[in-house]
Specification:
This protein is α/β, with parallel strands linked by helices and 271 residues long. 33% of the residues lie in helices and 27% in strands. Bound molecules: 1-O-phosphono-alpha-D-glucopyranose (G1P).
């Protein structure tokens, strides 16, 4: 059973400057609430019972936002008629119970962020969300968990992207099973068009095995001196660990760039 999810949140958010010079990008409102709350809702609806947020000293506002029950308590004491306040209060209280925080103060890559959760993961597999990637209209985590049960394997979300855009993504080398799943033979981080083995991209939902921690512990830094999760996944595939790709049916919104962020508000407001 997959009951725990981790979310790396220590990134600097430079693609969303100037907003991110004062506010973590994951708290920027998308149609009235932080992008991160959409991800929490997806996880909760897929049966996740505990979330581990990997933040940094520079992004403590995230903890403040989700642990701010005393703030609501105080104002509700003065005004206990406001229904919206009460609703927000009960939501925050629920979140506080299921979110834990760990710290990654030096941004050394997604693999390094994952490693910070090593002592908290209890079961054989866990889910990881990348907070820039919102998926609406269909619960991607839920369908990935179904595939995980069917194949008893790791699962990564995927989407077909335009050939000219492959160098923005992790790209799969794959063997197609059917319309919504494939066997992952390899994954290459941001390849050139010439070196891309397909145009199926990695999207930020991963069901990973606990054994990835051991791989990450011994992994040397890769591109830009960072510890990449993609490199650890490659090592596991070489060691014959089974990874399935899931071509999800929901709508993907890229909130990691200014253009995508603006568009995500428009798309969500239409729901
Ligand atoms: C990360 C991953 C990449 C993946 C992408 C999905 O890249 O490294 O493999 O395709 O997320 O959003 P980033 O967006 O951090 O550059």
């Amino acid at each position: 059973m997959i009951k725990q999810a981790i979310i790396p949140l220590a990134g600097l958010g430079t693609r969303l400057l100037p907003l991110t010079s004062v506010l973590p990008k994951e708290l920027l409102p998308i149609n009235g609430k932080p992008g991160l709350e959409y991800i929490l809702e997806e996880g909760i609806n897929a049966g996740i019972k505990e979330f581990i947020f990997i933040i940094s000293n520079k992004k403590k506002e995230i903890k403040k936002y989700f642990y701010n029950d005393s703030f609501y308590k105080k104002i509700i004491k003065k005004n206990n008629k406001d229904k919206r306040l009460k609703l927000e209060f009960s939501k925050i209280r629920k979140y506080k119970k299921i979110i834990k925080f760990v710290y990654q103060n030096v941004p050394r890559g997604t693999g390094d962020a994952v490693l910070k959760c090593k002592n908290y993961i209890k079961s054989e597999y866990f889910l990881m969300f990348l907070p820039d990637d919102l998926i609406i209209k269909n619960n991607c985590s839920q369908s990935m968990i179904k595939l995980h049960k069917k194949y008893k394997s790791s699962v990564i979300a995927s989407k077909k992207v335009k050939k000219k855009d492959v160098s923005r993504w992790g790209i799969f080398n794959l063997k197609k099973y059917n319309k919504n799943s494939f066997l992952i033979k390899d994954v290459i981080e941001k390849p050139s068009l010439k070196n891309a083995p397909s145009n199926y991209a990695v999207i930020g939902r991963y069901i990973l095995p606990k054994k990835i921690f051991k791989i990450l512990q011994n992994q040397k830094p890769g591109q830009n001196g960072e510890i990449h999760i993609t490199d650890a996944i490659k090592t596991l595939i070489d060691k014959k660990e089974k990874f399935i790709g899931h071509v999800f049916s929901g709508k993907y919104l890229d909130c990691g760039t200014m253009k995508g962020y603006i568009n995500s508000s428009i798309e969500i407001s239409k729901l």
